[in-house]
């Protein structure tokens, strides 16, 4: 038990370290998405998409292959969401005792649940070409929670402390504190993940590991694989039937007689072995575990002498509902429930074509966390149900750094390809367009050079026109790859006067982006540019020229 807790703690620390450490050039080759790749549902999503490199599928394949031998050991030791639930369950122990009379009639400990319909629903959704339901897989949820909710909150707290320290430094003349800062990224739709995680953890009031017992689709898949596992729970003749093991089991896997347990529900946490006062419970390989009585097994699976199975019917209904829901969300023509129409949203460089992208993306947030400029954001419902929480490029938040390839490096399913720098440069995500009625030069006849100066590819040109007194910006789409530097640095307050649109985006399932760009007549040559202004992010322009410019 102590060894399991040690492994559990080390596993959580390693997960957080891989998630929170920056994926820079010094960390090339580090498997930042290792834990995500171990999630059985993420593994199946990557396998179904056909775009994940085989090496990225190996951790998930290993977990699936070991489960028939070791049971649901992944749930009790390696899963960071399971560890988080264990920690919060201890805090909720008093609240759970008060709620016990309400729970007693609804969650019988002798009949551990089997949420296979959830697996069938997810499988049907993935088969229909949408991985939307995989966003509730344990590793995807844990990655979004720690990476997109807790990490920014911690960074904001540290930045607040840094600002306080800088103020104190000014008062006491400590110059070393002048540049102390902790940049805090921000992510839209973070409240969705926070609310979902709060619900998952709050369910511990009803029963320990409520999520793992009743709702976790990955756990249900592992439960299916561990029905005939080799590592079994064995109860010796020293058992007195005191029921201590039954009370200690967080999954409700132990039967009322305290001598039998459902191997599909047991997560091999060894809580029963620690609680047994007689030392009668142990886990051994081979024969030792005792199966459920035939009547309990038949009751659980709804079988009768005529061969009718409620479980089979439930699985069929759930699979059809998952596939139907995916098809519905993918086929709606527009509005709030818009389907994945090609080139409507600006996706990360190297993203697959829209339908393949949505079928592969598991909404884990790894690419957003790894992005150094915070330009990758989770999409809201405005992009349609099918694209909910999938990454989109928001240049106003930050530009896409030309020398960065991190998003493809950390994607566990190949929804964003891991491209070398030359290929990534040619993986055009869109093209910039001037909004003339907001542009300082076009609308107010006032000089502004920002978009021209910051463009790393020289795609913005200043030209004279008959209707303007000064040179105004034009975009050469053949040289624009949609990086968004112009939109991010545009000094106009509010929406930018130059915006990146997904028109002309190159999104390939196979082949070379360099060859595709050349065939389309595109040329992306880096140019040395001057900094636009001494500022970070958009700035207001009221009654004067942009910051950094003189009359």
How would you sum up this structure in a few lines?
With 551 residues, this protein is mainly alpha-helical. Helix content is 44%, strand content 6%. A two-stranded antiparallel sheet has the order 1-2.
What can you see in these coordinates?
44% of the residues lie in helices and 6% in strands. The protein is mostly helical and 551 residues long. The radius of gyration is 28 Å and the shape is elongated.
Helical amount among residues, as a percent range? 40-55%
Number of helices: 24
Question: Structural class of the secondary structure composition?
Answer: mainly alpha
Question: Oligomeric status of the shown chains?
Answer: single chain
Question: In terms of per-residue confidence, which ranges show pLDDT below 50 for 5 or more consecutive residues?
Answer: 102-113, 289-310, 332-340, 530-551
The first-to-last residue Cα distance is 73 Å
Strand content: 5-15%
Largest sheet: 2 strands, antiparallel
Number of separate strands: 8
Strands across the major sheet, in which order? Answer: 1-2
- The geometry reads as elongated
Indicate the radius of gyration in whole angstroms.
Answer: 28 Å
What would the average pLDDT be, to the nearest integer?
Answer: 80
Which terms summarize this structure?
551 residues, mainly alpha, two-stranded antiparallel sheet, 44% helix, elongated
Helices, strands, pairings?
Elements: H1 2-20, H2 34-38, H3 40-49, H4 54-70, H5 73-78, H6 80-91, H7 93-104, H8 116-127, H9 138-172, H10 190-202, H11 210-215, H12 217-225, E1 231-235, H13 244-248, H14 271-275, E2 281-285, H15 294-301, H16 310-331, H17 354-360, H18 366-370, E3 376-378, E4 391-393, H19 406-410, H20 421-426, E5 431-434, H21 440-444, H22 450-454, E6 460-463, E7 472-475, H23 485-489, E8 498-501, H24 513-519
Antiparallel strand pairs: 1-2, 3-4, 5-8, 6-7
Helix pairs in contact: 3-4, 8-12, 8-16, 9-10
